[in-house]
Structure formats: C-alpha cells, structure tokens
Amino acid sequence: MNDQANSVDERYATTPATLTSWSRQDTTWMLGLFGTAIGAGTLFLPINAGLGGFWPLVILALLAFPMTFFAHRGLTRFVLSGREGSDITDVVEEHFGIKAGALITLLYFFAIFPILLIYSVALTNTVGSFMEHQLHIAPPPRAILSFVLILGLLAVVRCGEQVIVKAMSLMVYPFIVALLFLAVYLIPHWNGGILSTASVIPAPSALLNTLWLAIPVMVFSFNHSPIISAFAVDQKRQYGAHADERSSQILSRAHLLMVVMVLFFVFSCVLTLSPAQLAEAKAQNLSILSYLANHFNNPTIEFAAPLIAFVAIAKSFLGHYIGASEGLKGLVLKTGRRPEAKRLDRMTAAFMLVVCWIVATLNPSILGMIEALGGPIIASILFLMPMYAIRKVPAMAKYRGQASNVFVTAVGLVAITAVVYSFFA
Predict the structure, then answer these.
(1) Per-residue pLDDT band at 5 (split at 50, 70, 90)
(2) Which of 346, 358, 384, 399 is at 20 to 30 A from 127, Cα to Cα?
(3) 3-state DSSP of 39-94
(4) CA-to-CA distance for 128 and 29, rounded, in angstroms?
C-alpha cells in the first residue's frame, strides 16, 4: 500500500520550479475561496462587529487574518494528510476509524446543509423583493420563483466542480467592485459617532466579554470550510508532495484579500453610522445595505443593494453546495451502498433541489435557530478536529509544536462557548 501511495505521489508531484509559477488555476481557487467565505453574512458584519465599540472592533480587525488563515490551513492540511483523492469524510475514517468517520460525516453534513437552506430562503426573498420594490412588477408565486432560482443554480452545479469554482470566481469580481464602490462612496459621510467611544478605554472584564461574544461573528463571516475539502483534493492532484506549500500560498492570498476588502467595508460603514443607528439596524433585522439605502434615501444604493445581495448569496450557495453534497454522498456510501458515481450525483442534486425548494417556499423562521446550532459543529470541525489530529495522527506529526496550534484551539473554544451562550442566553 505504501509503495502504491508513493507511486501516486510521484506521478502527481510537480517540480519546485513549477511550484514557483502562479497559475490561472491558483487564481481561480483563490477567488473561489473568497467567494465561498464572503457572502450574505458580510452584509450584516458591520452591524454585529460595530456594536461592540471602537476598541473591540480594532482588536477583531487585528485578529481577523490569523484566525481565518491558521484555522483553514489546519483543515486543509488535515485533508491533505489522507490518501490520494480522499475527501474530508474519507480522511476522518482513515485516521479515526469507521464509527468516528460516520459521526463526523453526519455532523459535517448537518453543519453545512442548513446554511444551504438559509441561502435558498434568502435568495428567494431578495429576488422577490427586488422585483416588487425596484422593478415594480409582481413576482411570480413563491413556489415558482424559488424553484426557478434553485434550479438555475443547480444547473451550474451539474456542469462540475471546476465550473462551480470558475463561476464563483467570476462572480467575485463584481462583488469586490461593489464593496469598494460602497466603501469609497461612504467616505465623505464619515463622522465621529463610533469614535466617541474610542476615548473611553473599556474595563478589561467588559472588553473580554465583548470580544468573547464578537469573535464567533468574525469567525463565521470568513468561514469557507465547506469548500476546503474539494480545494485540498485538487491541490494534491495538481501539486502532489508540494500541495501543502501551494495551498498555504493560495489560502494566505485569499485571506489577505478577504480581510482587507471586508474590513475596509466594515470600517467605512461603522464610521458612517452612530452606535444608535447600528443598534436600530440590528433591531430592524436589516442588512447594512438596506439600512444605508433607507438612511440616505439614495436610488443608486437602493437599486444596487439587492443586486449585490443576490451575487453574494448565489456564490455562497454554490460554495456550500460542494460541501453539503460531499457530506451527503459520504453518508450514502457509509451505509454500505455503492451506487454509480453519476447516479449518486443525480440523486444528490434531486434531494438538494426538492428540500431547498420546499424550505424556500415555506420560508420558516426556525432557520436562524438551525444556523445557531450548526455554529458549534462548524467550529469543532474547522478549529478543533485538525488540532486534535495534529496531536494524535502520525501523518500530521510534523505540524506539532507550533504556536499557531494553541491559537487556533483557543479561538475554537472561544467561538463554541460564545455561540452556545448566545443561543441559550
């Protein structure tokens, strides 16, 4: 088995000279990672992060890159530690056994699939509202609208994983331009509202409590764990023994782009609105774009906001579909059934279409609770499982003793406890 694995590695390995040249495929993955992470949650981040005050926001900004990069690098390394072509569900079974593999696969699916349902609802709401309020036409019945929208996205899915990633990377460009446009547009409207809290240094206990509750918001706003497994598998296929090095380069550039773009947008929004206005937006359950459109009564923002939201939701839907379908296929295979690959793909797509369509049509309010319950599972898989594997799995022993491991573990525990506390508080 080892000889076979070594021959596979040699076949797919590239020379160091090839590794130094950045390819178009690397750029596509970088933008695909960005597209999965930066979605609808970004439009609520200025409200949630800004409510804590100026100094907690500054600290969160400084922590954003290491929190996201080290965690996703750890999960990528975990998938890379498995056999050639193994996704995250296979690697868990390989390292921890059949029972643990089945449990993690189940948790992985139920952590990601509810988010897919939430995006299905949000997409239907966004397009319906846009047709009614901006285009001034009556939207079709909700059942028809949701079916057409979800079917359209699944048509992209049916073209294959590489097409999904390319579609997401293309959708990233208008999203980046829109975020930049809005952030720059707001600069003349900056005021000292949030800065009024800068002169008051909060007590250490109050500061720690604010950060404790705010860290999960930052963590999950930059989360792109659903696509990490597919990313790692492709990196191993492309670069073989050099996959860890190249994937780390792609992740670092993707996260740098995320942090710079999103934090510029966040600070621009927060410097424009007062703490009272941010609290009002949260109470109205509006995204920052919708609140700014109402605040300025600006037709441009009012028209652009739903279009930006549509792009954000659509590309995040595609990225989360990869993870959700991967989890569902893993669950089917772990029952002992071995359907043909194409048939399994069709079964998965049909299941996703029917469930997403039903939920989007019903528009249940319980989805927020499901997302809150999925939060600790995502944090456990993204932060804690790879760090546990580094300590226990021989294939990951070379990563032991790094300070980043302690940091990732601490952030994971903070995120889990804060989400649980917020849910029951």
Answers:
(1) very low
(2) 346
(3) CHHHHCHHHHHHCCCHHHHHHHHHHHHHHHHHHHHHHHHHHHCCCCCCCHHHHHHH
(4) 31
Q: Could you tell me the CATH number of the domain that includes residue 153? A: 1.20.1740.10
pLDDT of residue 141: 95
Q: What SS3 string covers 184-199?
A: HHHHHHCCCCHHHHCC
The pLDDT of residue 278 is: 85
Residue 106 within any structural domain of the chain: yes
Span 70-97, pLDDT tens digits: 999 999 999 999 988 888 988 999 999 9
Record the pTM.
Answer: 0.83
Q: How much is the average pLDDT of 131-153?
A: 92
CA–CA gap between residue 41 and residue 221 (Å, rounded): 6
SS3 222: coil
Q: Which of 12, 31, 35, 9 is nearest to 22 (CA)?
A: 31
Decide if 19 is inside a domain: no
Model pLDDT for residues 372-397, shown as the tens digit of each residue: 667 788 889 999 999 999 999 999 99
CB 218 within 8 A of CB 60: yes
Does any domain span residue 56? yes
- CA end-to-end span of the chain: 52
Query: Which structure tokens are listed for 419?
Result: 């989400």
Output the six-digit token pair for 369.
Answer: 């609770």
What 3-state DSSP class applies to 199? coil
Nearest to 270 by CA among 419, 60, 67: 60
Judge contact between 36 and 227, C-beta under 8 A. yes
Quote the number of domains for the chain: 1
* pLDDT at 196 (0 to 100): 64
Report the C-alpha gap between 36 and 164 in whole angstroms: 11
pLDDT digits (tens, 9 = 90+) for 57-71: 888 899 999 999 999
DSSP code of 194? G
The per-residue pLDDT of the chain, averaged, comes to: 84
CA distance 100 to 334: 11
* Full domain range(s) for residue 71: 36-424
Yes or no: say if 409 and 400 are a contact pair by the CB < 8 Å rule. Answer: no
